[in-house]
Each structure stands twice: as structure tokens, then as C-alpha cells.
TrEMBL record, chain B:
Residues 407-436 form the 4Fe-4S ferredoxin-type domain. PANTHER family: ION-TRANSLOCATING OXIDOREDUCTASE COMPLEX SUBUNIT C. It is found in: Cell inner membrane. It is an enzyme of class 7 (translocase). Its EC number is 7.-.-.-. This is Ion-translocating oxidoreductase complex subunit C. The lineage of its organism: Bacteria, Pseudomonadati, Pseudomonadota, Gammaproteobacteria, Chromatiales. InterPro entries: 4Fe4S_Fe-S-bd, 4Fe4S_Fe_S_CS, Ion_transpt_RnfC/RsxC, Nuo51_FMN-bd, Nuo51_FMN-bd_sf, RnfC_N, Soluble_ligand-bd. It comes from Candidatus Sedimenticola endophacoides. The complex is composed of six subunits: RnfA, RnfB, RnfC, RnfD, RnfE and RnfG. Its cofactor is [4Fe-4S] cluster. [4Fe-4S] cluster 2 binds at C386, C416, C419, C422. It is a peripheral membrane protein. [4Fe-4S] cluster 1 binds at C376, C379, C382, C426.
Length: 337, 450
């Protein structure tokens, strides 16, 4: 009997869905983004190969899941992120986030986010150094920080930014602008990625469409992004209505930062998300609401990463309280006759 | 109530899968008789319960239809000679599709004999009391012909205090490839309805519903045209979906009710019979004969002449495959349907009362099966497929660490009836159903030794 889909097919399709995002990142940020994508993916793949060799298991590169980790990791990093740090992030993502747990299927948290969380703590400056989108000459020259040497003092990009600045660029992401300067960026700029941010998180519309492709092919549970969005709106809306000038609108929350990428491609990672529909709703609502709370009241401007990691960690717990109702075990149906 | 039904997709259960049907090649073919094999093998245990006890001795001549074994207990049935011939051996151990060897009566066929059934005692079922009817059913040696092979008379005697008010007749035939029930419904409609009448009378049931998957609407039409006016029998089309023919799910599809976990349909006043069983009862009881042949669908790409054959019980599989010119090299032979049937290790097994189909696979039909097995990626496809709403993902992980006790206590392992839906949809190609079979066997053994 022929079967419908395989793990390889699912993973390959996620890669297909990520490729337009990579292409957009390269178009937006130039060869620095391209180099970053290649380096993290290569680093992830080599790490996987290395750990397979260490543990004497057959190499699992062919299932494409490690390519997803590599691509996603690059998309969550600033485009001018030093390449050597990208390689470290890739090693940590796959090594600590995946291989040490037993490889595909056994990881507790999303490997790409584990890698990103590590570099966020290890390289706080580099990971918050933003460069403008659509800088002139982006296809012929690297952002200076990209080629920084390992363990040397950080390269200052301020001068480079100044010389390349597109109108009014301040080196801050829309979330930072909102949080610290109360400047709200236009939703249409957020939709089409006309803003600063991580390499692949800025074009909300494109991310949404790529995620929708996966959902339509039934390779991603649509409930997860739906639940995340619902969670965001449910928490952000009351604050916004209470004090519109202090708290941004739910729409801004949905379109800014890494929320769209996180909801569509990282929260929806099958391995780290609950099994049942009820569990998935709980999980998504948790991510959405945590993200907004971190953004509004935390020290960081962005909260998606930690929200997803926390929810990943809670998944076994969510699973255990949302077991399906087994046929013939009550629920009122027997009484009906 | 009506309000709720608006939202319930009519006549179906939730979850399940849609495998390719592969029924085209045999659905239109009339039932044909298969020749008698030169040697017949009648296992004494081809049903659920206790083995039958042989009544014949080696060297003895038997007439086709003659009882050759009596029931070995209440949950057991008699056997009848499938051919006129001479008993060659009694108690000889023969292979079975299930695995363990089992004692059988081996009969050498008299090739020149007419093979007419002379052994009968005609009677009018309408004049029998319910008790006599049950006894008459027991004498036929009838078991569930849908594949479960549970002795039919046992279901006619529900546990004390349980009253059966509804008889559900299973004409779903949800297994891919199989079309024998479809043909029986079309060609033996009258006999089938006669069988239903008997069962309703024996049980004192007021109503009967015949459930047929909606890929066999011609059968629904034929049955509706012949429904008797004096009985409350309905024929309903149900959604074509696997495993619609599982009795608990068919009950849910037709009535909206659920059989309690760990219970049987009798617990909610329902008895379920297969259409083929009904047609055979309708034929055998009035004549006072025993079950000596059944309709078997022989199909799959490895068969030159697929079809629905009337096969004598005890026909060796090897003989049957020769008759249909099966390609016996590089292929797999499944007894029953491909989803729940048994892949047989030997061509020397016999066609028994519970075998509804013989499917001969060539490798290209099974592309998915030799794919590598990946770890569970928690995609939840199995949860969305399991018709009993179990958690096959969790069960599979527990099986991986051999925590069989927890599978049973916390995750309802024993509710699983091994329909194979979870294995079918698993993108990681994990043989979940196999794991669950092993887990159940281990638990059973642990209980027995404790």
C-alpha cells in the first residue's frame, strides 16, 4: 500500500518554503546575508555529520531537517552578524539543541532558537547591531562586521552605516523604535520588509505566504500560527485600548520583529509542539501572550524566541494534560441514543 | 438532538484514512466456483475460541457436507467435510497464516466423485423457536465471515441481562481490494435478508440496519428494492473510509452511539453481523447444511485472473494461486485485506472460514514499506488517523522503551484493534501496529505467568 508522505518530503517542503525568504533576505541585505545563510547552514550540516560520526550512527543529513535549522538560524540573525559567530551559533544549535538529545525527533526545543539564544547571551552587541535594508552597493561589498575576525574587538559599523544610510535610518528595529522612542513604524513597511531587523524576519507578508503554502500542503499545523496570533491579539488589545500611545496596536505586534517567522516556522516545528488540537491551541496562545508580555514589560525589545523556547519546554506537560478522549470512555456520547 | 445532527457529518465516524481502493479489477466480476483441490486441509481451529474435536479417523470415507468435527466448547464450532473423499490424517500439524502450527484433518478428494452435497436435513426456520434457531446456527459451524471468525451462535446468546434491540449488518467492506461482500450483496440479496430475519428472530431484536459504504450504491439500491415489508430493516449508505467496517465504528456511524471502552456491542444492545455471514446462514439453515465454502476475493497485480471465487474451506493456498495463475516469485501473499490481513509465510496454509481475500502483491505496489524508519517527529498524523482517538505517537514511544505496562494502564493499548491506520499515515514509517501487537502479547504473557 502506497503511503502519502514521508519525513524527507515534509522536511524538503519546509526547505522550499524557506527559500523565498532567503532570496528576499539576500535581495534586501546583499551578499552579507547570503554569506551568513551559507555559513550557518554549512556549520549546522557539518555539526550533524560530526555527531553522527561520533555516535556511530548513519549520517542523517539526507532528511533535510538540519538544512531547515541552518536556514532558520541565519534568518533570525542580524544580516551583518559576524560569520564566525554564525558558525558558532550553528554548532550550538545542532550540537546542543539536537544531536545531544538524540537527533531528529528527540530534541526538546527548536534547535535554531537554541543556537540563537546562545549567541544572544554570548555576543550581546553583535546580535543587536542592525544595518539598513536596501543599502547601496550591498551586492558588491560586505557589511564590515560580517568579516570580523574571531575574538577580536568588535568592528564598529557606525561609520559604514552613516555612509550608506538610507533616509532616516537610525540603526534600530521597529520594536526598539516603538519601545524606546515611541515611534510606530507604518504597517505597510512591516508587511513588505522595508525596515531593519534580522535577515529573514522583516517581510511579514512573504513569510505568511510561505507558511500558508506549508499549511495548505498539510505539512504544518495551521492551528499553531492561528493560536499564536490569537494570543498576541488577546493580550495586546486590552493594553492598546487602555493607553494607545504607550502600548502599540495588536497589528503592529503581529507584523513586527520575529513574530511572523517564529509563528509560521519555529513554533510550528512538529517535534517541539504538542500532539492534540487542544494542546496546540494552548501552546500557541502561550507563545503569543508571552511574546507580548516580554515585549511590553521585559528588558528586551523582542520576546518571540524566549516565548517559543519556554513553550517548547512546556510541551510534554501540555501533552500530558491534553490527551485525546478515547472512543468509548465517556464524554456524553454513550448517553445519547 | 436534531440540532446536533446538523453538525455531525452524516453516517460516518471521526478520523480514519482513505487508502486507494483497488477494487475496480474484481468489483464487476460475478462469483465463480473454484475447482476442488486434490487434497484438502481443514484446521480444527479456524475461529476464535476452543478448537473443534475430530469425529473421523484416518482412512475413513467422508461425504461432502458431513460433520467431521464437533465443537470443543461453547465458544467453538463444528467442521464439515468440504469434499467427498477419504480422510488421510487427523491431527496433522499444518502451518497457519497467524503463525503457530495447528492440528488439522487432511482429506484426499475423490476426483471422480460428483461432489454434490447430499448431507442435509431441510427445515423451515420460521417454525423454529429462538432456542432451536440458535442451535441450528451452531450446527452450521458458522463464524463471522468478515474476517474476525467469531462463532456466530455465541453472539445470538447475549450475556445475561443484556437485551439486543438492534442488529447492525456490516456491508462496508472497507479493506482495499476486497469485493466478496459487494458481490454477495448483489447476487445473494434474498438469502442475506433471510439470514437477517433469522438472526432478528433468534435475538428478539426489533430493528436491523444494513450499513454499506457509499462506493457500493448499486448494492444499496438492490437491497432497498428487496427489503421485506413486515420487518423494520433499513439499508444506509455510510462514508467510504477505512476502517468503516470495524464494528464499533459502524455502530457509531449508523447510530451516533459509542461502545464503551473495553466493552462489546451487546453492552449497548447491539449485535453486528457481516453480510456474507447472513447470506450463508440464509442458505444453510433452511437446508440444514454446514459451512463448507465461502466467497473469497483473489486480487492484486500478481494475479492473472483476479475475481470473486467460491472456495471450499480447506483449499490449500498454493492450489488456489495455481488456479488464478498467480506469479509466485518475488511477491507477498496476504490473507484477508491488505490493511488488517496476515502476510503469510507459507503457501501451504489453507483457506479457512475467516479468509475474505487473497491479495498477491508485487513489490511495486508496496513502495512505502521498505523506506527507512525515522524517529517519531510528533507530527500527530497518527492521532488524526486513529479511529478510536488513541495516542499512537505516545504508545509508539513507550513501546520503544518497552514500557508495555504503562501503554496498557495509561494509554488504552487494549482498545486498539490493530486497524493499521497509524502505521499507514506515519511519515517516519514506524511500524506502530506491529509494536502494539507485540506489546499486547507481552502483557498477556506477563499476566499469565503472574
Amino acid at each position: 500500500m502506497k503511503k502519502v508522505i514521508s519525513v524527507g518530503q515534509i522536511m524538503r517542503n519546509v526547505v522550499y518554503a524557506l527559500l523565498p525568504l532567503c532570496a528576499w533576505a539576500v535581495y534586501q541585505f546583499g551578499i552579507s546575508a547570503l554569506a551568513l545563510i551559507l555559513v550557518t547552514t554549512l556549520s549546522c550540516a557539518l555539526t550533524e555529520r560530526f555527531f553522527c560520526w561520533m555516535s556511530g550512527r548513519p549520517t542523517t543529513l539526507s532528511d533535510f531537517s538540519v538544512i531547515i535549522t541552518g536556514l532558520l538560524l541565519a534568518l533570525t540573525l542580524p544580516p551583518g552578524f559576524p560569520l564566525w559567530m554564525g558558525a558558532v551559533a550553528g554548532f550550538i544549535a545542532v550540537g546542543l539543541g539536537k544531536s545531544l538529545f538524540g537527533g531528529i525527533g528527540y530534541n526538546v526545543m527548536n534547535p535554531a532558537l537554541v543556537g540563537r539564544a546562545f549567541v544572544q547571551a554570548a555576543f550581546p552587541v553583535a546580535i543587536t547591531t542592525w544595518t539598513p535594508a536596501f543599502a547601496p552597493g550591498r551586492f558588491v561589498e560586505f557589511i564590515p562586521s560580517t568579516l570580523a575576525l574571531p575574538f577580536m574587538s568588535p568592528v564598529d559599523t557606525a561609520d559604514w552605516v552613516k555612509s550608506h544610510a538610507v533616509d532616516g535610518f537610525t540603526g534600530a528595529t521597529p520594536l526598539a523604535l516603538q519601545k524606546f522612542e515611541r515611534i510606530t513604524v507604518d504597517s505597510s513597511d512591516l508587511l513588505f520588509g522595508m525596515v531593519a531587523g534580522s535577515a529573514g524576519e522583516t517581510a511579514a507578508l512573504l513569510i505568511f505566504l510561505c507558511g500558508a503554502y506549508l499549511a495548505l500542503r498539510r505539512m504544518m499545523d495551521w492551528r499553531i500560527p492561528a493560536a499564536v496570533f490569537t494570543g498576541v491579539v488577546l493580550v495586546a488589545l486590552p493594553f492598546h485600548l487602555y493607553q494607545p500611545e504607550a502600548f502599540p496596536s495588536p497589528l503592529f505586534m503581529l507584523l513586527s520583529g520575529g513574530l511572523m517567522l517564529g509563528a509560521m516556522f519555529m513554533a510550528s516545528d512538529m517535534v517541539g509542539s504538542p500532539l492534540t488540537a487542544r494542546g496546540v491551541w494552548l501552546y500557541g496562545l502561550l507563545i503569543g501572550s508571552l511574546t507580548v508580555l516580554i515585549r511590553l514589560f521585559g528588558g528586551l525589545t523582542e520576546g518571540v524566541m524566549y516565548a517559543i523556547l519556554v513553550a517548547n519546554a512546556l510541551t510534554p506537560l501540555i501533552d500530558s494534560i491534553t490527551q485525546p478522549r478515547v472512543y468509548g470512555t465517556g464524554g456524553g456520547k454513550e448517553a445519547r441514543s | 438532538m436534531g440540532f446536533i445532527n446538523l453538525f455531525r457529518k452524516h453516517n460516518t465516524f471521526s478520523h480514519g484514512i482513505h487508502p486507494l481502493e483497488h477494487k475496480e479489477s474484481t468489483a464487476g466480476l460475478k462469483i465463480r466456483r473454484l475447482p476442488f483441490a486434490p487434497r484438502m486441509v481443514v484446521p480444527l481451529l479456524q475461529h476464535r475460541g476452543a478448537p473443534a474435536v475430530a469425529l473421523v479417523k484416518p482412512g475413513q470415507e467422508v461425504v461432502r457436507g458431513e460433520p467431521i468435527a464437533e465443537p470443543g466448547g461453547f465458544v467453538s464450532v463444528p467442521m464439515h467435510a468440504p469434499v467427498t473423499g477419504r480422510v488421510k490424517a487427523v491431527g496433522e500439524l499444518v502451518p497457519t497464516a497467524e503463525g503457530p502450527k495447528t492440528p488439522a484433518i487432511v482429506i484426499d478428494t475423490y476426483e471422480a466423485s460428483t461432489q454434490q452435497v447430499l448431507f442435509d436435513s431441510p427445515r423451515d426456520p420460521a417454525r423454529l423457536t429462538p432456542e432451536q434457531l440458535v442451535e441450528a446456527v451452531r450446527e452450521t459451524g458458522m463464524v463471522g465471515l468478515g474476517g474476525a471468525a467469531f462463532p456466530s451462535h455465541v453472539k445470538l446468546l447475549p450475556p445475561k441481562g443484556k437485551k439486543i434491540d438492534l442488529v447492525v449488518i456490516n456491508g462496508c467492506e472497507c479493506e482495499p481490494y476486497l469485493t466478496c461482500d459487494h458481490r454477495v450483496m448483489l447476487e445473494q440479496t434474498g438469502k442475506m435478508l433471510a439470514g437477517i430475519r433469522m438472526v432478528m428472530r433468534a435475538l428478539g431484536a426489533e430493528r436491523a440496519i444494513i450499513g454499506v459504504e457509499d462506493n457500493k450504491l448499486d448494492a444499496v439500491e438492490r437491497i432497498r428494492a428487496e427489503l421485506p415489508a413486515d420487518l423494520d430493516i433499513r439499508c444506509e449508505a455510510v462514508e467510504t473510509k477505512y476502517p468503516q467496517g470495524a464494528e464499533k465504528l459502524l455502530i457509531t456511524s449508523l447510530t451516533g452511539r459509542e461502545v464503551p471502552s473495553g466493552g462489546i456491542p451487546a453492552d449497548i444492545g447491539i449485535a453486528v453481523y457481516n453480510v456474507g455471514t447472513m447470506a450463508q446462514l440464509g442458505d444453510l439453515v433452511p437446508r440444514g447444511r454446514g459451512l463448507i465454502e465461502r466467497v473469497v476475493t483473489v486480487s492484486g497485480h500478481g494475479v492473472r485472473h483476479p475475481g470473486n471465487y467460491l472456495v471450499p474451506i480447506g483449499t490449500p493456498l498454493r492450489f488456489l494461486l495455481e488456479q488464478v495463475e498467480a506469479d509466485v516469485g518475488a511477491c507477498e501473499v496476504v490473507l484477508g485485506g491488505p490493511m488488517m490481513g496476515m502476510s503469510t509465510a507459507s503457501l501451504d496454509v489453507a483457506i479457512t472460514k475467516g479468509v475474505s481475500g487473497v491479495v498477491v502483491f508485487e513489490h511495486r505496489e508496496q513502495d512505502g514499506l521498505d523506506r527507512p524508519v525515522f524517529p517519531c517527529i510528533k507530527c500527530s498524523a497518527c492521532l488524526d488517523a486513529c479511529p478510536l482517538h488513541l495516542n499512537p505517537s505516545m504508545l509508539g514511544q513507550l513501546a520503544g522503551v518497552r514500557d508495555y505496562a504503562r501503554m496498557e494502564q495509561e494509554y488504552h493499548l487494549n482498545d486498539c484493534f490493530e486497524c493499521g491506520s497509524c502505521s499507514y499515515v506515519c511519515p517516519s514509517n514506524i511500524p506502530l501496529t506491529q509494536y502494539f501487537r507485540i506489546a499486547k502479547a507481552v502483557n498477556r504473557e506477563t499476566r499469565e505467568t503472574a
